[in-house]
Write a structure and sequence with these properties.
The radius of gyration is 36 Å and the shape is extended. By secondary structure, it is of the alpha+beta class. Helix 1 packs parallel to helix 5 and helix 2 packs antiparallel against helix 6. It has 6 helices and 11 strands.
Length: 454
Amino acid sequence: MQIPALALLLTAVFASPPAGAAKQPAISAKPASANATPEIAEKQADLGELRSRIEGLRKELNASEENKADAADRLRESERQISRLQRELLELTEQRGQLQKKLKDLEFQSHELSSTLGLQQAQLEKLLYKQYLRGTPDSLQLLLNGNDPNQMARDLHYLSAIALTRAELMGEINATLDRKKALAANAKERAEELQDVEARQQQRHAELEKQRAERKALYAQISDKVNSQRKEIGNLQQNEKRLTQLIDRLSKILAAQAAQAARAAEAAKAAEAARLAEVAKQKAKPRPQQEEKEPSRPAPATEASRPKTIEAENRYEPVANDGSFARQQGNLRLPVRGVVSGRFGTPRDGGGTWRGLFIKAGSGSEVKAIAGGRVVFSEWMRGFGNLLIVDHGNAYLSIYGNNDSLLKHVGQAVKGGETVATVGNSGGNPDSGLYFELRHQGQPIDPMKWASLK
């Protein structure tokens, strides 16, 4: 009756997996799909077309300027460079923050893996200790001892289980060590990237300080001429005319793009209607035709008169807001905190009247979008310095001028309350602050009938 025990013994001896031979778990990452959806591709094409058209408009405006005698034009390149460097510094700061967060996550993962490795090693130590207490008898020795076959079968099963568990533990430990090694390499790579970003930050800071010093020296040389030209009514009117021409051309570009999108939507709607009609025809179930009603459109905002506020200081900032821009009339906030000095419709130095507001604020203060929209202009312009324009839809535009730096590119979507620029005095403006306009269908409207100071 020793044959079954012998067979069991041989099976345990030759079938037990050797230590370390267990299959290690593979670490795999599911690759992201490289193919963009048709909707994303279409939006990217629209964005590229918008940028192309506005870049052509910018070149056309620069080429059509009647002369370069305006003293503020000498500040153009310096102020453009300051804006560019500020934007790059912001991008580098965001990149640095992301890398620091990534390094922190990697450090946390490393601690987690160290804890896991410690537990695995402790389990292996317990297993070896138990095997030591049992004396770790050799399989052949068990056979030759001539002990009870049932006891011998139990001993062999125990030996097989220990061998299997030990192999699995060794495999898990090896996999954990491999992950720690890959984690350490990743952390080293991110640390090198962070070091490179910090070096570029220092370089941009140095370039920015140099550019600011050059601009300050140049402005000191030409400040008298700049101030005298700003007081000339003809010069002021030319600046306003130039901005109006820019708004008109931007409006045409945006209207053309909206019309194109509407035609595409109408074609898609017709195709869907045809598909549904075909399905209904195949099912032979006539349906009463439902009259499609056009979605109700908000009535255009009227310039309802209201008492003029006597408050001259804005203490609030824009916040995130949703819905139609027209429906937010009276509930918006001005783009920056500060003293509202120039008011819509009041006389301004040099003749004419204010078509917007001038808000005095400290240089470097954050300028925030009053509502969600898309940047359609981000460039230096005579009389307005670094100028940014946001399209809010339904022919509403918000205009931010005399900025120190522009932080958004043409085509970028922005949310209400998102920082889009920083306050400055570009364009030859003697005071640090923001020139702000609202326009509807190209015409200036009073921002104080849209924004609240309370």
